[in-house]
Amino acid sequence: MSDLAQKRKNRLQRKNRIRATVAGTAERPRLSIYISNLNVSAQIVNDDEHKTLVAVTTVGSKDAKGNLTEKAIWVGEQIASKAKTAKIKAVVFDRGGRKYHGRVKALAEAAREKGLEF
Known about the structure:
alpha+beta, 3 helices
């Protein structure tokens, strides 16, 4: 197995392990993030009803500029403001198999500063 395939497999295992314990409800939906090589996406999901309540992405957005960390900060601020308008105050954080470090941490801290609790 190549190194890239092994990395992909390990991340998938971490993601599945996290998702086995983290679940969003109507009271505390799940904040799920995805970071690719170029873009950052976040969505707030109610797993009981299998519905996405709020979503933000940098794909096609002219407001999100800079490197990926700056884009992650922008997404964190936007998701928190949209959650506030949707009357969502507290969420469960799903980091998607990534370490809580760098871009993930920047997104989470930006969302917390705008008033989202997790």
